[in-house]
Amino acid sequence: MKIACVGAGPAGLYFAITMKLRDAAHEIDVFERNPPGVTFGWGVVFSDLTVDNITRNDPVSARTITDEFAHWDDIDVHFRGETVTSGGHGFIGIGRKRLLEILQQRARELGARLLFEAECDPADPKWRDYDLVIASDGINSRFRDVQPEAFGVDIDERRNKFVWLGTNKAFDAFTFAFEETEHGWIWAHAYRFAPDCSTFIVECSEETWKDLGFDRMDQSEAIAACEKLFAKYLDGHRLISNAAHLRGSAAWLNFRRIKCERWSSGNVILLGDAAHTAHFSIGSGTKLALEDAIKLADVLNRKGLSLEAALDEYQAERSLEVLKLQNSARNSTEWFETLERYTHFEPLQFAYSLLTRSQRISHENLRVRDREWLETVERWFWKRATDGHSNKTAPPMFAPFKLREMRVENRITVSPMAMYSAVDGVPNDFHFVHYGERAIGGAGLLFTEMTCVSPEGRISPGCTGMWNADQLAAWRRIVDFVHANSKAKICLQLGHSGGKGSTKLGWEGNDVPLESGNWPVLSASDVPWSPINQVPKPMSRADMDEVREQFVAAVRMGREAGFDMIELHAAHGYLLSSFITPVQNRRTDEYGGSLDNRLRYPLEVFAAMRAAWPSDRPMSIRISATDWAGDDGITPEESVLIAEAFAREGADLIDVSAGQTWAGQQPVYGRMFQTPFSDRIRNEGRLATMAVGNIYEPDHANSILAAGRADLVALARPHLVDPFWTLRAAAQLDYRDIAIPPQYLNGVAQLSRNLKRDAEAAAAMRV
Ligand SMILES: Cc1cc2nc3c(=O)[nH]c(=O)nc-3n(C[C@H](O)[C@H](O)[C@H](O)COP(=O)(O)OP(=O)(O)OC[C@H]3O[C@@H](n4cnc5c(N)ncnc54)[C@H](O)[C@@H]3O)c2cc1C
Ligand SMILES: Cc1cc2nc3c(=O)[nH]c(=O)nc-3n(C[C@H](O)[C@H](O)[C@H](O)COP(=O)(O)O)c2cc1C
């Protein structure tokens, strides 16, 4: 085949090498706009896996590259005058310029033609003479941008400003240096890639960048300003830019996240950054470019595979890998973009949050990397959780937590879950066993299912209630069992179904109206949940008074039943949520329109409940922090304002759920997918939060807690199959200091021994 590679970056050069290795008869021309030896950027980092891949593909170039690698293990985080060092991270890096020299030499050796100072124009007719044109022309690819529809290009220009500089200061560790200025934070990512050369990337928010005057400085002034800001890390060494000699490259940039739906069009194939980018803070762009090149060369040389099938396979396989990395990169990008959210952390927690920002590294990964350091974090966590009384080194999930005078033994909670098994709202033996079992299962706090304040406030005929004496007595029996047989605390979740009421039991059809015996439903507005649901009656002021008093009466009964805590359910599209969310609330009076108006009634109910509940016992509020409706729904900023408004009325904990507020929601699912909302509310609003949603491993819980993304972690569905989730986690993590019912002591000890033996055997096999 006759092939043109546009761009002699890692993608274009490595593709040329790999094609020639597969079949020396390919005729390959590599065009590059810059002269040889002139390039942007400084060092690039690799993982062990990438080294294995390039070694298998071309041992010759891999040997030269690996011979020149700089290695380092530690990460130093400089923050507020302290340096936090954690080890075991195992990085390898090389200068970008040197990497390109090695690849150029190898490409030439194998017979590829390299043409420098050759600016390529997509409109040039000469491209028709090639069987394939590989657009390896980087992030600002002209060949991609000339036909954006054909490739389905999606570009997201990110908020922060960065500049990629170098220095002769040799950093021993991968260094993050954060500096606070009168105009906000600015920081550097620095690492050594050669004995006397390091990469030094400076980043800050656009506002800080402007306020520091960088928008008015030329390159040498900007460099001098950075040298001054980071003088204490540079030991008198200069910062250097290589952007001045470059064509098509600027000094300060905003990172552009590129995604393409299709990676080929006609005879043009996108490779490397032209097809996709991953934020520099996870250092994987070069790896992706090299691995793309290997895969594309593989499929193009596979006998019997048509060009169309080859390209399909190339994209199908590579796009999965790219998606995973782009997801991690997005988390990492956002962490740096919202940095100021975390600057109230102490240095140790700040460093932990930084290290776990992409969610690729978890609590247990950090233990493997540097046990001693992780144990320092755990000790710190326990000390804070106990006001300095404990010196324990143990997983964060087992640390106690205090809300008003209520102390929970650990940070795991059983999230509210409707059981649809009551008759006339009265909990029965099923509920007794269900809650009793989960209490002795080790969780620190148990939430009841949404317990309704009136018969009409039920979701289904099977919902539990708190409006009469029979219900109160049945709940008291459950609460007494929990208190007598476990250390768990129990919280009564109170709610009103609103427009989602009068529907079937959960397993008979979610949100499907009853076949018969329907009751009229209330809501903020006359917006039906779906075309098959009833049109609700918009609440009148008299309705509001009546329902508020029902909530207050239920709170008083909850107090009599002995509950430790009350939660008001204002999420998931039920009555109070229908006021808060603009996708349901169409009112034109003082209860609709602005956020203040939409919050007015829910806050009134909460305040009345709070007044009826003992001041030494806590209350929480469950909210949907997003409607998953883009700009039409609750915005991320509003979620913080909502939480703050309830906190002002006496909410001690924000139970941060999401969605289920309208039938057309477009949620983005994944592991711990709602935790970012809790993170934001906790760290911007400085409020205690509980995270929930697809959290299922002890490792998830520990990572969330230690990184300060929530104070409590709620698990719903995992507790449906395993009431003993917390005790099992204690056995798994070899944590002994948990209240185990004496009847079950042997079982937990045995599980702990078995799990330990299995882990040791697995480790021995790996060796
Ligand atoms: C600040 C920063 C730090 C980074 N750190 C790392 C890191 O540590 N590790 C890592 O793996 N990756 C890192 N990256 C990403 C990495 O640089 C890219 O992912 C990688 O270079 C992609 O390789 P590529 O060959 O696709 O594109 P590029 O390396 O951008 O190469 C494209 C080439 O095409 C040439 N070109 C463009 N248009 C034309 C044209 N019309 N005619 C002729 N030539 C053209 C360009 O001059 C360039 O040489 C970083 C990126 C940035 C911005
Ligand atoms: C069967 C079931 C019933 C639920 N009922 C309630 C409820 O009564 N009140 C509530 O606030 N959330 C309810 N939820 C939502 C859960 O509390 C939780 O937010 C959600 O399931 C996500 O957590 P998970 O991924 O750990 O399951 C219910 C969830 C399930 C699976």
Q: How many beta-strand segments? A: 30
Discrete helix count = 25
List all distinct small molecules, including ions and cofactors, that are bound in this structure: flavin-adenine dinucleotide, flavin mononucleotide
Q: Roughly what fraction of the amino acids lie in strands? A: 15-25%
The major β-sheet equals: 8 strands, mixed
Roughly what is the average pLDDT, rounded to an integer?
Answer: 95
Q: What is the alpha-carbon Rg in Å?
A: 30 Å
Secondary structure class reads: alpha/beta
* N/C terminus separation: 45 Å
- State the helicity in percent bands: 25-40%
Identify low-pLDDT runs. none
Q: State the shape.
A: globular
Describe this structure in words.
- With 767 residues, the chain is an alpha/beta fold.
- Strands 5, 6, 10, 11, 12, 13, 14 and 15 form an 8-stranded mixed β-sheet that branches. The protein has an 8-stranded parallel β-barrel with strand order 20-21-23-26-27-28-29-30, surrounded by 7 helices. Strands 8-2-1-9-17-16 form a 6-stranded mixed β-sheet.
- Helix 1 packs parallel to helix 4, helix 2 packs antiparallel against helix 3 and helix 24 (725-732) packs across helix 25 (745-766).
- The longest helix is centred in the middle third of the chain and has 31 residues, at 307-337.
- The radius of gyration is 30 Å and the shape is globular.
- It starts with a strand and ends with a helix.
- It binds flavin-adenine dinucleotide and flavin mononucleotide.
- Flavin mononucleotide (FMN) is lined by residues 415-418, 449-450, 493, 506, 569, 622, 657, 692-695, 715-718.
- Flavin mononucleotide (FMN) binds next to helix 23.
